[in-house]
Amino acid sequence: AQTVTQSQPEMSVQEAETVTLSCTYDTSESDYYLFWYKQPPSRQMILVIRQEAYKQQNATENRFSVNFQKAAKSFSLKISDSQLGDAAMYFCAYRSGVGYGGATNKLIFGTGTLLAVQP
Amino acid sequence: DAGVTQSPTHLIKTRGQHVTLRCSPISGHKSVSWYQQVLGQGPQFIFQYYEKEERGRGNFPDRFSARQFPNYSSELNVNALLLGDSALYLCASSSVGTENEKLFFGSGTQLSVL
Prior knowledge:
The complex is a heterodimer.
Chain A: E1 3-5, E2 10-14, E3 19-21, E4 24-26, E5 32-39, E6 46-52, E7 60-61, E8 64-69, E9 74-79, E10 88-96, E11 107-109, E12 113-118
Chain B: E1 5-7, E2 10-13, E3 19-24, E4 31-37, E5 44-50, E6 53-57, E7 64-68, E8 74-78, E9 87-94, E10 104-105, E11 109-113
Parallel strand pairs in B: 2-11
Antiparallel strand pairs in B: 1-3, 3-8, 4-5, 4-9, 5-6, 7-8, 9-10, 9-11
């Protein structure tokens, strides 16, 4: 079975600084996807960034980038130029590449990291 | 366009009762998934439905059931409620249920079982 581990329950960063959130996962599959989701107090899960396992290049989305180490099964999120609006719970998630007809929307989430941004 | 909408937003029930939670996907989306998020944990997958057929089921007891209607909206039913069923229930939708798609989440229904 696949597992996702986030070992940092809480992190804090100064506004405009950079912070890195850690995530490790365990799987025997070769085809999968990794995600970072943000959950603000509104409770809605918002996709921050995604990475396909077959792609060697690390994904980037504006101030958000990942460090994907496939052999080490590590998937960290870097937030640059942190803003007050980045304060939220961040979840790392895994999805199997099951192909059409399977449970394609089954995500396995970690326990989350609560990020505080100090002004 | 409206996002994924869930109703009600909050609900209080007592042990042994039954509850029905509702989800309306984004217009045009045919796949709906349900997740349970217990306080302090990440969401756990309960069900996925696509075109009214069950695509997948997580490790939940038979007290949990769901269905999808012709308009692609969905209901999650939980029978014989237990205290441990207290959680945030999230619904997510996607267009055609392929693995390349983005999932869109609603803001959830907070269920409290007393």
